[in-house]
Amino acid sequence: MKKLALSLSVATAMMASAGAFAEYPEQNIDMIVPFSAGGGNDTFVRALQPLLEEKLDTNLVIRNISGGGGAVGLTRAQASDSDGYTLAAASNALLTLEALGNVDFTYEDFDFVAKILEEPYVIAVGEDSEYADLDAMVEAAKEGTSVQVGVSGVGSSAHIAAVAFADTAEVDFNFIPYPGGSETISAAMGGHVDAVVLGGAELRSALESGRLKALGMSYAERSESLPDVPTFQEEGYNLSLTVWRGIAGPDGLPEEAKEAWVNAIKEIVDEGSFEETASNLGLDIVPLYGDELEAFIAESAEVMKDSAGDLAAK
Amino acid sequence: MLTGYIDGLGLVFQLGTLLAIAGGTFLGIIMGVLPGLTSAMAIALLLPVTFGMPPVMGIGMLLGTLCGAGASGSIPAILLNIPGTPSSVATTFDGFPMAQKGEAGRALGLAIVASFFGGVASMVVLSLLAPPIAEFALRFGAAEYFSLSIFGLVIIASVAGKSLLKGLIAGLIGFFCSTIGTDPIAGVDRFTFGQLSLLTGINLLPALIGLFAVSQVLKDAFEYDPSNKLQNSPHKVDIARPRFIETLRNWRALLVGIVSGSVVGPVPGAGGSIASLVAYDQARRFSKTPEKFGKGHGAGIVSVESANNALLGGALIPTLALGIPGEAATAVLLGGLMIQGVTPGPMLFESQSGIIYGIFLAYLVANFFMLIIMCLGIKLFVRVLLVPRKQLISAIIVFCFIGVYGVDGDVFNLYIMLAFGLLGYFLNRYGFGTAPVILGLILGPIAESNLRRGLQTFGGDWTPFFTRPISVTFLVIACGLLALTLWQNYRTRQQDAAPDAA
């Protein structure tokens, strides 16, 4: 009897001490990917899944809830309990959906845990294109040539970024929306459009093979993954934007849950175990947490809103 | 090249790699059988597992999944009249009537062997001709896509059954449904009634399952008569074994299937769903006994199933040679390749690493595993028909719900499935047929968006649709086929009428 009592008390003590620094997570965590399997958001979460499961010591249950260009999944995520057990893979789509007025939520209804990856928007042309640089393309449009610019998805973040660039350059492009990145790239390779605006990761293999060439990209500074591509700012267009991917949950997540996630992600980043995967995918690891992240989101939301307004007006 | 294959052999023929391919194939077969579960989903589930593996092993596993799912989609199509994917819609045309005649084993035997031949042939095409075919696929711009979809629409006449008019009406219903959702060019919402789930339009899979599976269940349920013992007794089942000789005897259909799959399959975004229908249509036209199609004819199954697996190899062509995936499954596969550090593109074919040859061989091996596993399983599959109808339809409806919910985790898809189930029930009952609706749903967006995209790129000028060589070729063939169909219809009607007059 005594033995039992002793072991019980030991067990309680152990549980208590374990609880003191690792109460969260106690159960599996649902991760909503608001796109179908195979998209950029899906690939990034699945690539991180084994690493995160190890650090958080729980299972991540990935649920692809697609529809409405991310609207359905994100609405679901935003409406779920903010207990830290339902999170979503967040990206620019969250902001563009709000900017286009398709959803009832705003970015303030979300609690952003971390931004993990970034890629630039890249303007690329076919290998035999007459446009050697951004200026040539902008000049042609100014002179009245109909410069056809393919974008992936009407109202997608790439579409809005393309509009933002046109606004900055004060020209009109003939935007041709395609259903997705791969259709857009094949249209550019086949010479059916003059240029495309897409995320750097999607364009990676096309650029590497030389079938498309990048004229400019939207980071503020040059990127390691595309060292030879000038930024928009270098070329004289005052615009910097990034495609970001991270983790968010409904507003009011418990502090300990956020902390557990931030620590897990920090450890993964520090260990460098994700670096190779990210660079294979053409993505840059640019982590951001806490207040800095909030400021970053608010700023991106502003840019998206302005350009989406222009898009809707056209 | 030879040394490349020898290096590739070394990469593939290792116990771990072979086991991974076999495992992937097995999982693919299971996923393909269950309605609603797609090969894209299977590959996505396996992705994290493959990260730790060497490239050829991981990619081999994913290719196995693709190959297994491509072949096993025929099983529910034949046994239960439920196509798990758009590409096995045409399998139901002859497979299900055959199963009802008590020849389910023969139908499956043909399907398995035809899938195998289709897969192997497409691997050969892939390894020899991938770069030039990929270049050809690139020449498809808006005008070409539009004309291709018009060409596809002519097939409605072929799958329409008895009445061309009713078939066209059903096709137009599908066309209309495809306009629901965000306008592909202007971005305006159409017929969404504020429903978020409708923003991206009607999801093809719930509609497919509704039109074929749910409508069939409804029909069975309405016609169910407890006093009718015959109805409740299990189906007759023949001996189930692979049919090599009979498949080869249908060499015309086999060839048509392989060619259609390899030619139409590589066209990104359009090929996957229509290649098998094109194959079925062409096989019937080339056949000496076209009247047997649709009533349980072996050639019908052979053409569709060989096309089905040939198009997988076809879809790999732009994925590997250009990094442009044609549809969801190859898109997930592309993600897997990139994570492995294998960047698709022309470089992949020129590099000395042997990886590309390893990939070819892995796909070949996957086809052999598919053949073996399916041959071992065929006797089990047909036993499904021994389950009394009453129990069977309850099981089917459960799987439909699970599968459709699983697609997106969106309850709204279940409503879509049920609505299309009702629609399908009435369409079948009044002789309209459900296949034209699916064709309309698939081809509608391709036709509409590319017509508008084309007009936008050509600055409002419609003549390029008729002057671009590939585009005009498709349009001419489409007109020719339509004229042929109308003339044949006229002839049969006259022949039918002649004996009465005499």
Automatic annotation (TrEMBL), chain A:
Protein name: Uncharacterized protein
Matches recorded under CDD domains: PBP2_Bug_TTT
Family: Belongs to the UPF0065 (bug) family.
Pfam families to which the protein is assigned, alphabetical: TctC
Matches recorded under PANTHER family: BLR1237 PROTEIN (PTHR42928:SF5), TRICARBOXYLATE-BINDING PROTEIN (PTHR42928)
InterPro entries noted in UniProt: BUG, Bug_dom1
Organism per entry: Vreelandella titanicae
From TrEMBL, chain B:
Annotated transmembrane regions: 20-47, 107-130, 142-161, 167-186, 198-218, 253-280, 355-381, 393-418, 430-447, 467-487
UniProt keyword terms in alphabetical order: Membrane, Transmembrane, Transmembrane helix
Keyword Membrane attached: yes
DUF112 domain: residues covered: 18-439
Protein name, UniProt field: DUF112 domain-containing protein
Species this protein is from: Vreelandella titanicae BH1
